[in-house]
Every structure is written in structure tokens, then in C-alpha cells.
Amino acid sequence: MRMVEVIERKRDGEELSREEIGFFIDGYVRGEIPDYQASALLMAVMLRGMTDSETRDLTLAMARSGETLDLSDVADIVVDKHSTGGVGDKVSLVAVPAVAAAGLPVGKMSGRGLGFSGGTLDKLESIPGYRVDLSVAEFKAQLRDIGIVLTGQSANLAPADGKLYALRDVTGTVPSLPLIVSSIMSKKIAAGADAIVLDVKVGTGAFMRTLDEARALALAMVRIGHAVGRRVAAHIADMNQPLGRAVGNGLEIRESLEVLRGGGPHDLIDHCLRIAGELLRVGGVVPDLESGIRRAAEMIETGAALEKFRALIAAQGGDVRYVDEPERFPVAPVIESVTAPRGGYVAGMEADEIGMAVVDLGGGREKKGDPIDHRVGVVMQVQIGDAIQQDQPLFTVHAASVETKDRAVARIKQAIQISQSQVERLPLFYDRIT
Ligand code: URA
């Protein structure tokens, strides 16, 4: 088989066979197929799409590209969650400790930033020392000991996704349904969780822009999960504005710590509780979502979730003083607050533009392997539907230099629409698929 022929067939809109998909995945993971050919195939998939059976074959080939974990010797039931990616999405940092604090083990492999969307690993690495490269043995031992792991896709689990993810980030091939489905579900299958909750985002700050696309993505993932014997539930959540207020790695960790301490913005709290509640339901701890939400809220109120987060940071080598004294997080040298040019109502936000402004500040990557500046980002002070007065603060930019601050300010100003007529607030969630 020749890779160029596989690329040409997809370029021409043909359906790839299981053998062709397996040839690509195996060859790419072994380093025999170079990035430029993989990029060409990804772009062909992005433009031509994949059939259900191609998507399933791709998912399984990726899941089997390395080791697959068997966690049955660690706990009776292990749960996992995954978000399709958004701006300011720090849900794992709150929901995972809340669930683990309730006694349900969560072993999660998270990702890095992708395009305009942030990544949990990049956020966690703003805590000095925190390791995201646990081996399988370490993953299992930690899950057994403290019931919580948040690590990267090391340990040879779905290595195909690790490589493809980094390539997609820099080749404009992120927002493709089959590529997102296979990326997420291959990791989830390889990581061995029994039950999975998917947080599917829709809107200007998500890879899926319409509710129909988001539903199709959620259904495709739920179907693949069921096909391999996993319990799966998906929530379709709004992502037309950043979730919470902070966007940017260190700033988001600080906001998550506020929520774990019982404070923080309401949209973020409610979002985290719902995902945590669903995890507790699919994990069999509670009979329904409402009881799950109540149990997760208790874990935050009693401080048990914060305690679990601290245990997680300590177990993975992070400096726990950052958990107890968030003022230790380094602060960006240039901070500027931007106010409303006129009164009115916040009518809309291009959340992807806000995410890209943070990438440009140094909070994400322009190309594979770029370093991240954990100090930079933006803190929004308004949400869609808010009534605003002239000169009221809209957002604050945290930048490494005046030059990058100026660019971010201009870009984010452009991304916020102000209207003279009243605007409805957005719902947090649109749908739930179980
Ligand atoms: N999250 C993933 O893990 N993969 C994607 O492709 C998109 C979001």
C-alpha cells in the first residue's frame, strides 16, 4: 500500500477501507509516514468527511495504536469525562475532584490546547512541578491510592491521537466531526474507563457551530462508546462566550480554585456541578442527575473537593503551596482593563476570537511544541445579556508586553457586540443524550 494513494482516494471523496485506515495509523505512529503526508490526509478528511464505518475504524485503529488499560484490578468502576473543547473551559479542574471526593475514582487523560481552545494539561502545568507524563504503572497506582488522576496521553495510550492532535492544532484540521470523534473516543477507549461523560460544546467558541452539528457529534460518540460496551452520556453545552470569566492557563487555575473554595462565577459552578452530577450517575453512585448535582455541591461545600484537588497536585509532583496561596501564581507584567465605549446590552461575542487573542498573547501555540506563557490571558467582566453602562469594565488583558497587549485589546474589542436593545441571556445547556 502507498500512502499517496490513500491520500488521493480520500481527496477524491472515496471511502477508505479498514486496512487503509490501519495502514495510515500504524505507519504514522511508527514514524514511517511523515507529518506532511499525514497533514494532507487530515485535510482531505476535513474537507471530504468520513462515513460512520470509516469513523469507527479510525477510532478503533487509534485506540489500539498503543496499550489499552484494564482498570478492573484498580476499582469496580472508573469514570472519565471529556470536553470537545472550548474557551475558558476549566470544568475538569472542578468536576473531577468533586467526583473523586464522593468516592468514585476518575482516571483522566487530558489534552493540550487545540486551536483557540485551551487544554487542561497546559493549565495544570502552570503549577510548578506538576507532572503530566505518568506511566501506566503510576496511573494505576495513583488511581488506586487517591482515586484521581489527571495526566497526559503518555504511557503509550492511543499514541496515534497524541501525534495527530498536535498536527491538527497547527494545520487547520481541528473542526472535523470524524477527527474529533476518533480523537476523543480513542483516548477514552484506551484509558479503560467503564463510564464516560462527554461535554459537547456548541457556539462561536466551539468546533461545532450549530446545534445540529453538536448533536451529530454527541450521537456519534455515544454510539461508538456503546459499541465497545461503555456507559456514555453526553451534554450539549453553550459555548458562545467564555465559560466562567478567565481565559488563559494560570488565570483559569486560579478561577477553578475559587470555585473549589465555594466562590466563582455561577455559569461555571452550575456547569461543573452538572457534569460532576452526571459522572456520579453513570458511575452508579446516585440514581439520577439531580441527586448527583446535590452530591457534587456537597463535596464543594464541605471542602472535600478542594482537598482532593490538593491530593492530586501533590501526587503528581506539583507545588501544593499554589493551591493554598493562589497569590503565588506569577502575574503578567502588563495588565490593562478595557471599558465600554457606550452603554447598552452585551449582544454577542466571538468566543473563538477571544481564544485566539489568548493564543497570540502566548497562552497557546502557533506551531507544534511552542512554549506557553502561563501568566497571560483575559478576564471577562461581562456576559451576553448583561446591561452595561458607558465606561464600565468589559475585560482585562494580562500580557507579556505592551505590543501583545495592544493586539489582544483590539481583537477582543472587535469580538464583543453591544446592542441598544435588550438581549436574552444564553442557556448553559441545550440537550442531554444518555
Ligand atoms: N478534544 C479532543 O480530545 N480531540 C479533539 O479533536 C477535539 C477536542
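qc> The chain has a mean pLDDT of 95.
qc> done
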